[in-house]
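User: Assemble these into one structure.

Assistant: Restating your components, then the assembled model:
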Amino acid sequence: MNYQKALLFVLLIAFSCAKQEKVMVSDSENQHPKLILTAKGVKDIRAQLGTIPIFDNSLLKVKEEVDAEIALGIETPIPKDYSGGYTHSRHKQNWFVLQKAGVLYQILDDEKYAKYVKDMLMQYEEMYKTLPLHPKTRSYARGKLFWQCLNDANWLVYVSQAYDCIYNYLSEGERNKLETNLFKPFADHISVDSPQFYQRVHNHSTWGNAAVGMIGLVMDDEELIQRALYGIKGKEMDKTAKDDDGGFINKSGKAGFLANIEEPFSPDGYYNEGPYYQRYAMYPFLVFAEGLQNVKPELKIFEYKEGVLLKSINALLNLSDADGDFFPLNDGQKGMSYYNSALVTAVDVSYHYGNQDPGLLSIASKQNSVLLDDSGLAVALGIREGKTKSFEKKSINLSDGPEGKQGGVGILRNEDIELVFKYASQGSSHGHYDKLSYSLYENGEEVIQDYGLARFVNIEQKGGGNYLKENKTWAKQTIAHNTVTQNETSHYKGKYEIGSQNHPDLHYFSSDNKEVQIVSSKVRNTYSGTDLHRTMAIINDVDLEKPFVLDIMRVTSDKKNQYDFPFYYFGQVLDANFEYKTTSTLKPLGKKNGYEHLFLEASAKADDKNSKFSWFNNNKFYTITSVTDKKDELLFTRIGANDPEFNLRRDPALIVRRNNVKNTTFVSTIESHGSYSPVTESALNAKSSIAEVKVILDNKDYTAIMIANVKGNTKLFITANSDALKETKHNLKLNGKNYSWMGSYYYKQTNK
Amino acid sequence: MNYQKALLFVLLIAFSCAKQEKVMVSDSENQHPKLILTAKGVKDIRAQLGTIPIFDNSLLKVKEEVDAEIALGIETPIPKDYSGGYTHSRHKQNWFVLQKAGVLYQILDDEKYAKYVKDMLMQYEEMYKTLPLHPKTRSYARGKLFWQCLNDANWLVYVSQAYDCIYNYLSEGERNKLETNLFKPFADHISVDSPQFYQRVHNHSTWGNAAVGMIGLVMDDEELIQRALYGIKGKEMDKTAKDDDGGFINKSGKAGFLANIEEPFSPDGYYNEGPYYQRYAMYPFLVFAEGLQNVKPELKIFEYKEGVLLKSINALLNLSDADGDFFPLNDGQKGMSYYNSALVTAVDVSYHYGNQDPGLLSIASKQNSVLLDDSGLAVALGIREGKTKSFEKKSINLSDGPEGKQGGVGILRNEDIELVFKYASQGSSHGHYDKLSYSLYENGEEVIQDYGLARFVNIEQKGGGNYLKENKTWAKQTIAHNTVTQNETSHYKGKYEIGSQNHPDLHYFSSDNKEVQIVSSKVRNTYSGTDLHRTMAIINDVDLEKPFVLDIMRVTSDKKNQYDFPFYYFGQVLDANFEYKTTSTLKPLGKKNGYEHLFLEASAKADDKNSKFSWFNNNKFYTITSVTDKKDELLFTRIGANDPEFNLRRDPALIVRRNNVKNTTFVSTIESHGSYSPVTESALNAKSSIAEVKVILDNKDYTAIMIANVKGNTKLFITANSDALKETKHNLKLNGKNYSWMGSYYYKQTNK
């Protein structure tokens, strides 16, 4: 702390000596900086410096980092490596440092930063003008500094900000040199020379568009700006071509930044690839939007599509668990969270350009960092003025699809229990074949997991840090998810062409009743002739310690099938009410579609009423109670078969297998209960509180479930399977008793 | 906090109204309380109350807890259940509440607490006088309130304190009733009626001795006190009988509290069963010692055996990792830590009766709790007066055996790296067959694990919370540990009779050089005709990011054998320099001695020089570099085969298998390096810094190892295998160069 304070002191001294008269504010469009930092913003920041702790600290950290880099000297090696290798890491580091050094030059008015930026840019200029394609050939769109255009675009998004910051520091001749030999050809390489990368609706292209647009804004090059907003003029793409990940390059023919806003975001702000990729894509969306707002305010970019960019930030923050970690839907790497720097941008931009939601200030405080620009200043001032409130995450339904009509994601929250129900569309090339699947969290810990991706991002030893083949053979397959797999085949035959043309539909979502948070969705054609309808609720019942999950998965088919219904729990088996037999030799459960990656550890015949299974994890107890009959099989599996490079985690599952039936309904409850302390060695509430779960009625109109608990109380839950409108009145006779209610579902304690 | 403050206020008001004249201080031995709380202590506590935050808060918590119990009413159910069941838990809860209520009566002088204790004791008296043996039959020594005498003894250790606190509140008639019908027969049941429990040297007996002694001190019953100190007079035990755990009941013939101090503690204070059981045994040792010190100060119990009781507390605190979790040597359950209430006792007693080590105050502060007695008051005053210093854990060697001549445990510490090297004796019935094994920690996280026990203490669903059969078949076996297994057989044939008659010996321990912490030990007869000699060091070398482990295991035998040498790492395989082949079907590695519990996942032929293996865990990178030749096999295993009730964790290991050799030396380095952030997705220093490890010389006098790092620097390490005295001078010619040094080992960078 003392060191930090001393530095701050030096910093402020340095600043007070700076020639303030240098800063001139004008409305002229040619005033620089203008892109992200603005001349007015710089003036305001300088006026507040030293009185805005979160900003001052962010500035100090950046200064330390950049000063250390300046001390090391400039390195611009000839490109050679994949991600994780030296040249890749160095050029990546350079783009960050350039952007930061530019900002420091503006805020601290210290020429050493401008000179550093200029010197490095000149080195790049010298190298780039004769630079061939990157020697590594794996990408569908090779860059020059990096093995893929995507990273070249990343570079330009940051470096255009640095250029903006030192624009006025450079002579016209220097600017001409850089623009002619570096920036213009760089922008061309990632756009007109790489249309398969640039001319599409995809997070890669968003980076490309932003890169071209931002350098265009700085250079005041209208042609580049138009290319950024609307794509390469007149360029028609092959609609059947695919990229490395198996996704179509450009099926719709759409391109450009506005199309990239239009297509992937639903009106609720859900990004169709899921939060992990939204986080990645977010930065170019927001930083280019900031630039457009500053330079071309008449475009009203933040109001585009009814303000979807700002809505998407709220959606993204809601797609995180109690610790701020994003739910790993589709190809999401676990551990990515709102602590990522892209989210610092998102939170600050949302606060500044949105409606100054004080909840955002609590996230900014946790991030303990702000942008060194006008929006970061606004956040720092908000925090200084004590406006912070906590960011409350409630149950939320986020529609998917450009018009919000391609399913969605429903997040149910009740006390510490959080359920993420995925009924979204395919999710572009990063989508998984997991219709109506879910994952379950308790206070930020995974209870029933979504596997996420099979990749170790940027860890070179694991396939260069890129997608591993098990991502396709395991992580994307249906059996890797908590949903129904029919006849050991993935949804939509595991084919992108089919998956991307289908999606589930919302049946209903209800969070009005605090004690019953619920979502219900239907999907057709995951298998030809088979429909799925799943209703999931978190119910906070007075007789149970914590809210429990009720899960009703209805399967209707035109023929008899085998259905597998897994629970990807974590931890150690405690207890079961069925006799399972472990096998002394472990064999793969199947041959393909992900089954080849599951070892069968034990199997059992199910109980004729309820199969109960308890496990223990993170010093808490969990119990599944599933309605079964004695023809059902129960399989204990573990991931890791046919995994020649140990790319997969050895995680367990319990699978309910139901064979040779046409229509069936999987009904289960999942309880979290009690706790264990290894210090006091006391186990509290270690046993399930649910005595029985029973299906009372199950037809096309209603499913009625009786839940009896160990206190002897019985609860009835009824969901409307056909007409679930809020205002519909229902009358139903069950076991001689009449039940009437209005709305999608009924839940009431029947005796006490 | 407000609620707490309000309570404190009420508490102090209540106290100021109390009739202080009731407290009379006298030297009379019949003054009560006298056992743990003393009349003088009560007076001092009352004088300081409200000014000693940690004490006040501890008092508040106890008051809240006891008041809640009083509100619930008294329950003394007829005994019925095993651990974890209702009657067990209730009687266990009662003993705690009784002790606490007694203390509250003394400190707060509120009769409601005395009445509560009296009423409950009278209910116990009513029940106990006709109570048969506990109905559950599994114990070798059944109790009456509980299924095992051990828990009955626990009860009496606590309840004798409660009785002491309300002794003067009771009429003589009431005291006679309780003593005649409850306390005396209770003490007799757990001693003269259960000699197999009482008359031995074992942690169970310590509880028994303390229980009998403490009630004897309160009742002023000299016969009970003598029985406690010296065992049942004239009682000879069958020297060949065994208990439930397979340990001898009483082979030595020794018994009583003093023998229980004498036998299990080494002069350094190491407890022969290991820290988990020491923690469990600690409470009766210390609380009875406190009672003896208070009532019979002439016995000088804290000076007994050169102050071993206080030394043992220091040893125990040193047997914990950076988080305070005890190393799970022998049958230790992971997660037990110095936050356990027994350690609150230990820390407070050590501070008060020892030399007021200010480092203990920092642990007391972390515990955030003190005893409500004279020693807790001393700690609270020390903290209040700002005496706290941090408790520094350094490398430490703890001898084992009553005279410190039966091996020991060496703990090496260097920055965040901590290595626990076990060369101790068998460790009584809770010992594992793991001579010269080790476990490795980094900042409180396990890097190379010791499995610990196969038991879920107090979790009823797992075998009633008792030892599982896999504890014998797996956890105790040699192959479950990081040491050498010969011919798939455990050390000492896995036989307690042999194990308990043998032990390793220290070769040397050296922590003088800050950069080289080192321990070396030899053992004969783990296998007939085979000797083991292991030297382990943590070396902090300027060329490496973090201190690394150097491990030299010399095996000399009179015949050719197969040697297995495992590394129980945690996490995911990253990389190896050898070609391994996974198997699509997993089979157990062997048929017995623990091998039946290991699945073979993959195997490889070793590299002809060094086999390198890297893994990834908790966002850190680790690499083993092991000297191998191409005849060596490398086996990837996973625990969990032949585990019909899923009692074992599915943890991985890499095993170096060397077959058909007589003498051999396993030489390896283990590095922790770098880090990964899932938020920034950057991998730092993800690769090993060690280029080569080579054995230059290996004979009965010296082993010399060359370690070359990726910077091109080469280091030489030489350990003296025969004469390792500090003052011995060595001269050695290696590759034409002369090396001379004094002491056990040589380590120096040879070129730079």
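Chain B has 18 helices and 27 strands.
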